[in-house]
Description:
This protein starts with 6 loop residues before the first strand and ends with a helix. It contains twelve helices and twelve strands. With 342 residues, it is an alpha/beta fold. The protein has helices at 16-32, 44-50, 68-78, 93-101, 135-145, 164-172, 194-206, 220-232, 245-253, 264-271, 285-288, 325-338, and strands at residues 7-11, 37-42, 58-61, 85-88, 106-109, 125-126, 178-182, 211-215, 238-239, 257-261, 276-280, 298-300. Helix 11 (285-288) links the parallel strand 11 and strand 12. The longest helix has 17 residues, at 16-32.
Amino acid sequence: MPDFPRSICIVMLTAVGDAVHVLPVVTAIKRKSPGTRITWILQPGPATLVRGHPAVDEVLVFERRQGWRAYARLRAALKGRRFDVALAMQPYFKAGLITAMVDAPRKIGFDRQRSRDLTWIFANEHLEPRGERHFQDQYLEFAEALDVDPLPLTWNLGPWPSEQPLRDAFAAQLTRPAASIVIATSKPEKDWPAERWAEVCDALDEEFGLQPVLVGGRSPRELAAEETILARTTSRPRSTLGAPLRELVSILDASALVLSPDTGPLHMAVALNRPTIALMGYTNPKRVGPYRRFADLVIDAYGEPGEAYAVTRINRPGRVQRITVAQVLEKVRVWKERYAGS
């Protein structure tokens, strides 16, 4: 049997949720071969989440906004470096170009059916065709391709020992358990109306004794949602918008409950094993929903009642807006009955 690879380059540029799903692969590799060096090529945002992870030896940042200069700079960073294996985990053309830059005798990518933009041509080994699956399951196939057992799934997202004081400081400021609310996403189609979040905030405060905490970035849509929520609530939710991703790990970890549409922080919360109410409608929850946790807290507006839909890439616009405040609060009651205090 050939020796296990001593150096692996992962090509997975974005986004935060995908980075979270890749973490069980890198932790499984290190579990089998602690001496294997793992280099991960990432865009700046998710790079801030991954940098410092105990299983990741090196992060190379791909500055996509620099256009073709970003490719030139990455090529210079890779010059003269050879890896045993490249894992082409993102089936998009921009990632395929980067896979082509990586000097490795083995380049493992998705099968032709699951590749986009002809990216299957950049790999010389391919995963077995299996059809669409949950993103997490698809990424675990790369561990299996290296004869690595991905179980038990381990994210080790944090908070890491050096971050524990930050987590403790946030928790110390709370007088009640925190309910963190991810108020917006990168796609308007996945967002839930801000005025409904405002109603939920007041109910969390008045009915459930929870401290609403607004989390996310500081994009124009997120700031607009924050303004609407703060103007319409009496519960004074605490806003942490703009907190760096590593700080967000501590905030989510210190939360008793997380409420989120389909976006990166949702998968962060699930990886941290924090009860998460997922508002799913635009994207298929069988493909991108919480992975094997908190199924009883998922609000599935993607399918019609009783619909046995398949795992597909097809998005369904307008579905998230069907979710009512009453449906969200019913899931909060489920959380209270099954998870509160656990």
